[in-house]
Amino acid sequence: MTRFRVLVADDEAPARAKVKRLLADDARFVLEGEAADGTETLNRVTALRPDLLVLDVQMPGLTGFEVLEALGPEQCPAVIFSTAYDAFAVAAFEAQAVDYLLKPYDAERFGRALDRAHTVLRSGMPETARLHALLAELSDRAPASRPLERLVVKVGEAWVPLRLAEVWRLSSEDKYVRLYTDQGEHLVRQTLRALEERLDPTRFVRVHRGDIVNLDAVARLEPWTHGDGILVLKNGSSVVLSRTWREAFLQRWGLQG
Questions:
Q1: What pTM was estimated for this model as a whole?
Q2: 204-214: pLDDT as tens digits
Q3: What is the dihedral of CA 90, 91, 94, 99, to 10 degrees?
Q4: Which of 154, 170, 213, 219 yields a CA-CA distance of 20 to 30 A from 234?
Q5: Where do runs of H (alpha helix) occur along 104-256?
Q6: Higher model confidence: residue 189 or residue 202?
Q7: Using CA atoms, how far apart are residues 56 and 64, in angstroms rounded to an integer?
C-alpha cells in the first residue's frame, strides 16, 4: 500500500505533536517532517516534496497563505489548513474544496480531513485550479488599507522573506517581475500589474509600462525627449519616466506636473 508523505507546519509545538500523534494512527500516511514557521515550511516543502501539507494559517515569518503564494499551485502539495479563523473564512476555504481543521479539532474531524486528502491523492486530482481560486479569493478579500509588506524569494535552494522597503525597482519580465535591491536581483512569479495593486501607493509608483520605482530610491529627475524623463536612482542606475505616468509620479514625488 502506498503511504503518502506528510509535512506538518505549525508554530506551536503542542499542535505539531497532536498532528503527529493522530497521523501515527493512520497507516495511509507517514510523517515526513515538520516546520515551525513560514520560511522553514517553504524550505522543507522544497527539500522533502511531501504529498500532503498540514498547514497552519497564522505563523511567524510568513502566513500559510504567503507560503502557498510563494510555492505557486504547480509546486504545492495537497493542503489541509489548520486554522483558528472564524466561520466566514472557513466557509471560503470549504467552497474551494480545500479542507481545513478549525482549532480545536478532535481525532474524528482530523480523520475526515485525512479521508478527503487520501481520496484526492489516490485519484491524482489536480489541486492547482482549486488553489488558484482560493488565492484569488483571499487576495480579493484582503483589506485595501494593508499593502503588501514583503515577498518571498528564492536564494540558491532556500526561500527567504524580502521586505518591500528594501526594493528600489520592480521590472516586468513576461510573467515574472524582477526585483532590484542593494543585495542583488530576484525574480518572482507574478505580473507587474497584479503586484502593483498590492504595493503601498505612497511608496511605489509606476513610471513606465514595465517599471515601478520606490520613491525613496529616486535621486533626481533629468529631462529627456518628447516629454519623457530619466530618473536617476540613488545607486546610480537609471529608469525611463514615460510621459504617460509623468504627472502621477511628480505628484507622489512632491512636485506638480
A1: 0.70
A2: 999 999 999 99
A3: 10
A4: 154
A5: 107-123, 128-141, 192-196, 243-253
A6: 202
A7: 6
